[in-house]
Amino acid sequence: MTADFYAYEDLLPEEERKLLLKTRDFMRTEVKPLVNEYWAKGEFPHELVGKFRELGLAGLPYEGYGEHLPATSHLLSGMMAMEMTRTDPSVATFFGVHNGLAMYSIYSGGDQEQRDRWLPSMAAMDKIGAFAMTEPLGGSDVAGGMRTTARREGDAWILNGAKKWIGNATFADLVIVWARDEEDNNVKGFVVEKDSPGFVPVKIENKFAFRIVENAEITLTDVRVPEANRLQGIDSFRDVAEILRATRGGVAWQALGVMIGAYELALDYAKERKQFGRPIARFQLVQDLLVKSLGNITASWGMLVQLARLQDAGIFKDEHSSLAKAFVTSRMREVVAWGREIFGGNGIVLDNDIMRFFTDAEAIYSFEGTREMNTLIVGKAITGQSAFV
């Protein structure tokens, strides 16, 4: 029985559904055989970059910049994020950081010359992107407490500071670095190119979630960036929030993918694992966990379908993506725990996959705005009263 209990995939037009199925096949044949080995090593499988390049799906939904494809719907983009995460959250995050946060920052915050300069090579995955906002001493408070600074000197900017938890940064060709202008105190965005003097990314070791993702701590010491590399459409954190509003919905789709991946693993295991002379799928308590998991999946999927429709209509707001991120990631936590419960002791063994979803879910639960911060955004929208400190 498919996790798509209410046939949401059928909402996609035929051509888009073919792309979704192409993504599904790629993840199962090219990615799945590699992930446990690299998860155990805590390394990124760089050979996948070339295979993603051949897949040719980067650049969605940026009209005019997909190498092989026209712009497509937010529903397809969301389902693609879901589909990748369904196989492995870490590899899906590598693609999401590049195709979402990095490319969208340039697409929405850059001028036409900048879009034309960088997006074609990023859509072809000849250049890989990263997005550097979170800092060692700043997470949820980064909007008002960003410590990385930018100082204008003639036709260049001098960046100083530090960033942390930056996915892809150890090998990215282009890193979108956010810094506070010393003159006007507003946040601005800069495209920092690989090997720029003073730009030093160091891989964060000993993680127990997203082990395949090469998160880095970055130090910036008098990094000189030309004015031509400053995103011309970004004048304040309000502009940055527009980017986060769009990409936060993508994280909710990732959370849905984690739920589906964990549910499918648990369902297959329940059908095969025998106790007391019969498959554990015949036990009422196991069926209860599976049905609750399917309910979380189905409800979350419906919410995200409507979120995609609001995006396509151009009428969605911060609170829409915040509610989706807070709600779906909370449901995700339940589903991965129930899935691991069904596996019993076997669930802690990497070979059975479920623990990879269990631990990776914790990273998704926290990034792109914690549940608490997203709750405050929605709370302000529905009450008209701000509870932010």
Automatic annotation (TrEMBL):
E.C. number(s) listed in UniProt: 1.3.3.6
Keyword terms: FAD, Flavoprotein, Oxidoreductase
GO MF: acyl-CoA dehydrogenase activity; acyl-CoA oxidase activity; flavin adenine dinucleotide binding
Origin: domain of life: Bacteria
Biological processes per GO annotation: fatty acid beta-oxidation
Domain (Acyl-CoA oxidase/dehydrogenase middle) ranges: 130-223
Matching PROSITE patterns: ACYL_COA_DH_1, ACYL_COA_DH_2
Pfam families documented for this protein: Acyl-CoA_dh_1, Acyl-CoA_dh_M, Acyl-CoA_dh_N
Residue stretches making up the Acyl-CoA dehydrogenase/oxidase C-terminal domain: 240-382
Cofactor: FAD
PANTHER family: ACYL-COA DEHYDROGENASE (PTHR43188:SF1), ACYL-COENZYME A OXIDASE (PTHR43188)
Domain Acyl-CoA dehydrogenase/oxidase N-terminal: 14-125
Organism: Amycolatopsis japonica
Keyword Flavoprotein: yes
Enzyme class at the top of the EC tree: oxidoreductase
Protein name as annotated: Acyl-coenzyme A oxidase 4
Family (UniProt): Belongs to the acyl-CoA dehydrogenase family.
